[in-house]
Amino acid sequence: MAILPIFEVPHPLLKQVSEPVARVDDRVRRLLDDMAETMYAAPGVGLAAVQVGVLERILVAAVPIRDGVADEEEDDAEAGTKAFLTELINPVIVRREDVILYDEGCLSVPDLVVEVERSRIIEIEALDRHGEPFRFEARNFYAVIFQHEIDHLDGNTIYERMGPLKRRLYLKKIQKQRVRDGERPQNGAPV
Ligand code: NI
């Protein structure tokens, strides 16, 4: 297992649409393992393959599915830790219900929180790490996480949800921070 570098805006790869996985093999399973390790180390609650530079429809989330439902429970203090992992290959949202507003952050858009309107309940079909199809329902915060990650697979981030002026101000702030942290401001390179 390996911790992979996470690409950050404005890297052009993050705007590309990821391709479906044709065959779930050892290569895909290795990528899933590395993505999970990268997500836990960040730390984050979700990660899409494009964020580590792989344009395939694969994502991981540090949430549990219990009896076909992913919904936050009172004892979910361990959400975001290695206690929980959901892996999705070629996920598709097949049903949506209701609306929820949520303040979202993103590992590829550091130090930014954007309020996003999402479906409050969704049903997802996907393949597991053995290539077997499965289906589950996600609700509330966990539904938000999966919609955020599936957005990544379609080349969308919370960065695109800001207006052009806000985007420019944000990039200026981030580049200043990178200089202060002793990093060269690299145009679009992963840091
Ligand atoms: Ni994200």
What secondary-structure arrangement, pairings included, does this model have?
Layout: H1 26-41, E1 46-48, E2 58-61, E3 69-70, E4 86-106, E5 109-127, E6 133-139, H2 140-153, H3 164-180
This protein binds nickel (II) ion (NI).
Notes on the protein architecture:
There is one protein chain. Residues 185-191 have low confidence and may be disordered. The protein has a single domain, classed as Alpha-Beta Complex (Peptide Deformylase). A 6-stranded mixed sheet has the order 1-2-4-5-6-3. It has 3 helices and 6 strands, in the order αββββββαα. A hairpin with a 5-residue loop joins strand 5 and strand 6. 31% of the residues are buried. It has helices spanning 26-41, 140-153, 164-180, and strands at residues 46-48, 58-61, 69-70, 86-106, 109-127, 133-139. 25% of the residues lie in helices and 29% in strands. The protein has 191 residues and is an alpha+beta fold. The chain is globular. Nickel (II) ion (NI) binds at residues 106-108, 148, 152, 157.
Number of helices: 3
Helix share, percent: 10-25%
What amount of the residues lies in strands? 25-35%
Structure ligands: nickel (II) ion
In the sheet with the most strands, the strands line up as 1-2-4-5-6-3
Taking the alpha carbons of the first and last residues, their distance comes to 20 Å
Alpha-carbon Rg, integer:
16 Å
- Indicate the structural class: alpha+beta
Question: What CATH first level would be assigned?
Answer: Alpha Beta
* Counted beta strands: 6
Query: What is the CATH topology descriptor?
Result: Peptide Deformylase
User: What do we call the CATH homologous superfamily?
Assistant: Peptide deformylase
Query: What average pLDDT do the residues reach?
Result: 92
CATH architecture classification: Alpha-Beta Complex
How would the global form be characterised? globular
Q: Please, how many domains? A: 1
Q: Which regions contain 5 or more consecutive residues with pLDDT less than 50?
A: 185-191
The major beta sheet can be summarized as: 6 strands, mixed
Order of helices and strands: HEEEEEEHH
